[in-house]
Each structure stands twice: as C-alpha cells, then as structure tokens.
Design brief:
The chain is an alpha/beta fold and 251 residues long. It is built from nine helices and ten strands.
Length: 251
C-alpha cells in the first residue's frame, strides 16, 4: 500500500490492564476511502481497539498514526487536533434527549467553528439531507424511530467533514430491515464522499455487505487472527474459528 494512501497505521500495538493483556502485536493499515471492519467474538478486544483508535485511551505499547500524525505520542492539544479529523457514531447514538436534532448538531458547530447562525443552519440542513432526514430538524430523539436516531447521530458525526468516521456497533438495537437500510446509507456515503470508515460490528450481514476489508480479532491470540476481504474470510477453510464465524456454524 502506498504510504500516501494510508490514513491509519497501527504498529506493534499492545493494550494491558494491570496483569491482563487484551491485545498484543497488533499491526494493520487502513487505506483512504476504505470501509474497514473489525470483527470477532465477545471479549476479543474490538471495543478496546476502537477506544485506542479514537484517542479515548492510550495503548501500553506501540503507535497509532492518524493521517501522518502520531496520536500515541501527541500532547493533549495535539491529540485534540488529531481527533477533530474524526467523527464517531457511538453504539447508543449519544443524542441529548432534551434537544432537537438541529440543536444536537449545532452544539458541535458552535464549539468548533466560527460559523454564524445562518451558516450553521445551512450545514445542519445539508447533513440531515445526506442521511435522509430532511424536515426533521425540530424533532427530538424520543419522537423518531431507532433507525432515524442512528441516522441523526451519523449526521452529527459527519458535521465537521471528518476524514475518518468510526462506528461502534451501528446496527445494534435495529431490526434487520432498518439495519440493511443503514448499511446501504453507509455504502452510499462512502462512495459519494470517499470518507474512510472504520466499523466495529458483530452483525454478519452488515460485515459481508459493507466491508472492503476485515480484520478478525480473537482472544486466543490476543490480537488479529485473520485479515482479508469478505470473500477471502468466508472461504477461509484453513482456520476453523474464522470459517465458523463467517459461515455462522455452531460448535
């Protein structure tokens, strides 16, 4: 992979809490514009890895390079500047219940930009239209469906035009049809905006539908057990754990 094409570079990552090693010897790269999916069974370290990538935690060892800048060695001010290039869609959407969708999104624009109120409204209208929520500016989270909440949270995550969007279990709590609709939206946004997307999920249908490339974590190796495209991993008969996971086979 050409260095200019790499937007995330993880080198020799180790995460340890006390005596417990969660991840070690983790190495991977994510290309610009790629939909990169992190999968694995419960307790394999998916959420732990995501917290390192978005800067909520600092790894025990190793480096995380985001768009050419070393997140792990950055001071607080530098880390904030690096993290502002990212958007995050959290599992439980994180919308403030007492605020309208417009107010939820405006909070970020008011804090991080010098836009006036008219410009802020224009940006909000654009982002909501991108996720299929035109006309829902004045609705509160309780007044819309679970799938619409996810879309609103995605609009908020996109509001500063991030180079990378991180998703934590985006289909969590959604029925299969709503989940498939969100998958389609993710693919459309990736194609239209060329935004790099890093997604943690256990939803096999989503994994096979949206990912360009996948890493599978497993607690048995405290790190990456397999990497490849959806087809490569679905047809990986050399590793029984991988094959069973991607073909939904029971023990």
């Amino acid at each position: 992979m050409n260095n200019k094409n790499i937007i995330i570079d993880v080198k020799d990552l180790k995460v340890q809490y006390g005596d417990r090693v969660i991840l070690e010897n983790v190495n991977f790269e994510v290309a610009r514009g790629e939909v990169f999916v992190i999968v694995g069974g419960s307790g394999c370290g998916k959420s732990t890895l995501l917290r390192q990538l978005i800067g909520l935690e600092t790894p025990t060892e190793g480096k995380i390079i985001i768009d050419g800048e070393n997140l792990t060695e950055a001071n607080e001010k530098e880390a904030v500047a690096i993290m502002r290039k990212n958007g995050v869609l959290f599992q439980f959407n994180g919308l403030f219940a007492s605020m309208t969708l417009e107010e939820n999104i405006a909070l970020i624009l008011e804090k991080y930009t010098g836009l006036n109120s008219k410009q802020i409204k224009e940006v909000i209208d654009l982002k909501l239209s991108l996720v299929g929520l035109s006309g829902f500016q004045n609705y509160k989270p309780a007044e819309i469906s679970g799938g619409m909440k996810k879309r609103a949270a995605l609009a908020r995550a996109m509001v500063l035009d991030p180079a990378i969007l991180f998703f934590d279990e985006p289909s969590s709590g959604l029925d299969p049809l709503t989940s498939a609709s969100l998958d389609n939206l993710i693919k459309e946004l990736n194609a239209a905006l060329n935004t790099t997307m890093v997604i943690v999920t256990h939803d096999l249908a989503s994994i096979l539908s949206i990912s360009h490339r996948i890493i599978m974590l497993d607690s048995s190796v405290r790190g990456i057990l397999a990497t490849g495209t959806p087809d490569e991993l679905k047809n990986n008969k050399e590793n029984e754990i991988v094959y069973r996971f991607f073909n939904r086979l029971l023990e």
